[in-house]
Amino acid sequence: MGAPEDIHMAIEKRLREKLGPLGGKLHTGRSRNDQVAVDLRLYVKNAGAQLLDAESGLESALITRAEEHLDTVMPGYTHTQRAQPVLLAHHLLAYVEMLRRDRGRIEDALKRANVSPLGAGALAGSGFPIDRTALARDLGFATASANSLDAVADRDFALELLAACSIAMIHLSRLCGEIVLWTSVEFSFAALPDALASGSSMMPNKKNPCAAELVRAKSGRVTGDLINLLMVLKGLPLAYNRDLQEDKEALFDGVDTTIACLQVAARLVLGLRFDRDIMRKAALAGYTLATEAADYLSRKGMPFRDAHRLVGQMVAKGIATHQGLEDFSLKELQQFSPLFGADIFNYLTLEGALKSRDVLGGTAPAQVKEALAHVKA
């Protein structure tokens, strides 16, 4: 009883205590509705800048590691099955592309957040002849809102930032999911430093990639924040409703969680110690050069579908005889097709397979170097 109704009234009360009647003029031509909308938009602008900074940190980490591994070969996967050899640098730069799109979404959201609601009043505008454009400029906004009802009633600018955070977190979840796989004994592609892993309370042999697992899990938390705010806005009649008080918890949590996860992911990427030899052996196992043999026959004039079927028969024989395609002699290969010549062995190597993918966006060393130069520019 007798306490201020909320933070706005508490501030006004304190100003009146310090300034006397002048403090009571704080809300002249203003409402809590347009003021809180201004505050939230200012928060979104600041939060967006922090998100972009954290995104840059992870991008830089990925680019640094890609530059270190321009000659490291690994198996590329589809359906979690070994498919074709790729460069580790190419794999890491795929996440840079995802992060660049995440950055674009955040920047795009910030453009629409850069609008000042001040002067919209409770819902109908100010009763005083204020210069809303000048107010917007003084507060660092690009422009003033065009409709007073919309200015106090909507939070789609917060939704956009949360949506961008959610998509970024899905990308982080995928990256961290791969780190979990790569650091497992089954893969043994990489190891994490002790600072980014945990032991088992029972099993002395365990080294668990807990930091990566937690980032992977927190994607659900941020997506939940987005759904939370969507449901707050669903069905709200114009203009302001107290339901909008619930926008803060979801927005603050989603932003804070995403920033923290971006920072942890950067540490994970920088901390990984890759085993080049194991990755190279894995890149050759599983008949990952089969597509090269089919492409070779196709370049010699055989319809690709026929070549695909024929190389499938070669793989079946290789499995039965415990041979890789690169282990077949030319005579054995020509038993499948006379189109095979001695030059086939230039393609049935990891280097030959990589070099053949020399198209924009491909994993050929020349293309990956060019892609790296592009993201560093």
Element layout with pairings:
Elements: H1 7-19, H2 32-68, E1 73-78, E2 81-87, H3 88-113, E3 115-116, H4 132-138, E4 143-144, H5 148-153, H6 156-182, E5 190-191, H7 210-233, H8 247-271, E6 273-274, H9 276-284, H10 290-299, H11 304-321, H12 330-336, H13 350-356, H14 365-376
Parallel strand pairs: 3-4
Antiparallel strand pairs: 1-2, 5-6
Which oligomeric form is depicted? single chain
The span between the termini is: 62 Å
Mean pLDDT metric? 95
Q: What topology, given as strand order, has the largest sheet? A: 1-2
Characterize the overall form: elongated
Class inferred from helices and paired strands? mainly alpha
What's the number of helices? 14
Radius of gyration: 29 Å
Keywords:
mainly alpha; 14 helices; 60% helix
Brief account:
The chain has 14 helices and 6 strands.
Structure write-up:
Strand 3, helix 4 and strand 4 form a beta-alpha-beta unit. The protein has 377 residues and is mostly helical. The model has no long low-confidence stretch (mean pLDDT 95). It is elongated. The protein contains 14 helices and six strands. Helix 2 runs antiparallel to helix 3. It starts with 6 loop residues before the first helix and ends with a helix. Strands 1-2 form a two-stranded antiparallel sheet. A two-stranded parallel ribbon has the order 3-4.
